[in-house]
Amino acid sequence: MFILGLLAFLQTVFIPGFLLIKYLGIDLNANAGHKISGKIRQSVYGFGLSLLVNYLLVFVFTAAGIYKPVTLYMILFGEGVLLIYHWIWIYRGKYRERGYLTLDIRGCVASVKEFYTSQSLRYNLLLVLSIGVMAWYVFLFFYFMGGVFEHWDPVTGWNRFALDWANNQFPTNTWHYPQLIPANWSISYVMMQNTQVQCFAKGIMPLFPIAILLLFLDLGLREGKAVYLLGLAGYGILLGYLYDPSYIVSGYVDIAVSFFAFLSFHALQYYKRENSNRMFRATWLAIVFACAAAITKQAGLFILAVMLVWGSVSLYRDCKTLAHSPLDRASPIPGRVMGKMTGMFLLILLTMGIITASWYTLKEIQIHSGKDRSEIDMVQSVNKTSNYLKRLTQGVNQLTTRWHPKLKYAVYAGMLLIVLGLFHRQSRRVTLFIAVPYFLVWGFFFSYDTRNLAPALPFMAFSAAFGVDFLRKLLPQPGKFPAFKIPLIAVILSICLVLVVMNFTVFNQQALVRQQISKKMNMGDAELNKLLYRYHEQEGITGKIATNYLYLRYLPGLEDCYRWKPGRITVDFLEYLETPGAKEIHYLLMPRVLAHEKGVYKRFQEKLAAGQYRQVFIWRGYCFIRVRR
Question: Domain ranges in the chain?
Answer without folding.
Answer: 2-98+118-463, 488-519, 521-626
